[in-house]
Amino acid sequence: MKIAFRADASVQIGTGHVMRCLTLATEMYRRGHTCCFVCRDLPGHLSQMIGDAGFDLSVLPAPAADFKADDNDPDHAAWAGVPWELDAEQTLAAAQDVDWLVVDHYAFDARWEAAARCQGAKLAAIDDLADRPHIADLLLDQNLGRRSSEYDDLLPQKAERLIGPNYALLRPEFAALREAALAGRAERGNKVKTVLVSMGGVDLENATGAVLNVIGAQSDLSITVVMGANAPSLDLVQAQAAACSGRVEVIVNTSDMAGLMTDADLAVGAAGGTSLERCALGLPSLVAVLAQNQVEAAAALSIAGAAIEIGSPQSSEFPARLADALKHTQVFGNLNTLSLAAASVTDGRGVARVADALEYPLGLRSVTMDDAVAIWHWRRALPISHFRTQATPSLREHLSWFLEALGDARRRFYVVGDPSIAHLRLDLDDTGHAAVSIILAPDARGKGFGLRLLSLLASSGRAEGLSALVAEVHSENTASISLFRACGYVETGLVDGFYGFKLTL
Fold first, then answer.
1. Across 465-471, average pLDDT
2. Which long-range contacts (CB under 8 A, 24 or more apart) does 144-148 make?
3. Which SUPFAM superfamilies does its entry note (predicted)?
4. Paired strand residues for 285
5. Which residues touch 6 (CB under 8 Å, ≥6 apart)?
6. What's the pTM?
7. Are residues 118 and 31 in the same domain?
8. Helix, strand or coil, per DSSP, at residue 263
């Protein structure tokens, strides 16, 4: 496949959009696909980094200084620097004959998406805000606390949704170092000795300086500061660090963020994409809010117990909040509690799951009698103990049941994929609930489709106006139990060897 990425980096936008697209592009390249980038020439762009990574790059012309977005454009439309119509035209010219167009840009909505992709291409939108319509075939929102239902009125019903930190676009080294990082924290105990400060690639309004004003004078801490080469405050921070008697090291454009996080006892950082990197390594964090789009992320991390929110570095309350949070982590047991909660947010393997979604789009269609025999064979290949009904039906019995079930107005039958990889079913009741059933084709098992299939069922349930989905899973089916938990289902009890699960829609 050929995949084009449309994302920008700048002093205003930051570097995160391009960085996570680079992570996904690197994984797709590793799998044998061709990737290219389309970026606008903005102050602080990352064109050299993209080229150094080995990807073709089309640089769109620098914008005019007097651009002003229309009132009906997205809230961040000014970030594009040009009208969306012009950007879409330029993107279309630069990204011809692609199989996927991946857009990661707050400035664009469904109008741009309709105009920018070439004929025959699928479109994937990466979003964090849920504040504008999309016409994407696939939508990724990796943020903790985001609910799929927030996109119900913003996406076509058939679009696949990858929602939550299970799909976070983290570089593979975070998953690779996860086990060692968690073991190291357990061995080192609850003492804070090393602190990692990372306030985003461009360090908005010298947030790093505000942090060092509070913790730089503490002689018992060894501090590592990570900054981008384009950060306007870099010289100021380096001078500030030099006055701290050698206890503060400033690293510019590090290539080993995962290693630095593994070695640190505590992080002070922005509530952006790096917050999920810290979670993957179980790194306790104090999170600052550097932009409006980080408010929800910081709150979600705090609610999950994975971090302590310390507010905006520009606030008069920031020094006291940071100092209090640091004291909290030095109370015995608190650091370990934060670490365990952070590690439960994501396992760091999201990029592989998103790459799978690009390679294997999951189209959903209603079943027909032509699917009945294949589904019978799939069911027979599963252990009998996984089903409430222990007897295996004959093919004749199955076909008779299937024909009757197709005419039942309270049942929804689906087949996923082309060729088919799964059978999904919703059995509706009179309370607004529906029982979930999934049967995977034998060749599709163990390949990570479960999260995506449950997400498709949740979308279908919401489209039906249901209030909840329920499921029963055999107590020995540990893989399915973990899957339902990961998808937000809550256990409702254990009856006759089967766990009950419920997902409120």
1. 95
2. 144/276, 144/297, 144/300, 144/301, 144/304, 144/306, 144/345, 145/296, 145/297, 145/299, 145/300, 145/303, 145/304, 148/455, 148/458, 148/459, 148/462
3. Acyl-CoA N-acyltransferases (Nat), UDP-Glycosyltransferase/glycogen phosphorylase
4. 267, 307
5. 37, 38, 39, 91, 95, 101, 102, 103, 104, 105, 108, 116
6. 0.84
7. yes
8. helix
Burial of 325 (0-12, 13-18, 19+ CB in 10 A): buried
Taking the mean position of all CA atoms in its chain, how far away is CA 137? 17
The answer to whether residues 47 and 118 belong to one domain is yes
Assess whether 244 and 217 both reside in one domain: yes
Q: Which has more confidence, 190 or 372?
A: 372
Main-chain dihedrals φ then ψ at residue 7, nearest 5 degrees = -155, 155
Which 8-state DSSP code applies to residue 118? P
Query: Can you read off the two tokens belonging to residue 179?
Result: 């086990």
For the beta sheet containing 364-366, the strands, ordered from the edge strand earlier in sequence to the opposite edge, are 364-366, 411-416, 422-428, 433-440, 468-474, 498-504, 490-495
* Alpha carbon separation from 366 to 25, 58, 99, 369, 379 (Å, rounded): 33, 41, 26, 10, 18
pLDDT confidence band for 158 (50 / 70 / 90): confident
pLDDT tens digits along 65-101: 888 999 999 999 999 999 999 999 999 999 999 999 9
Claim to verify: residue 372 and residue 320 sit in the same structural domain: no
Check residue 81 and report its DSSP letter.
Answer: S
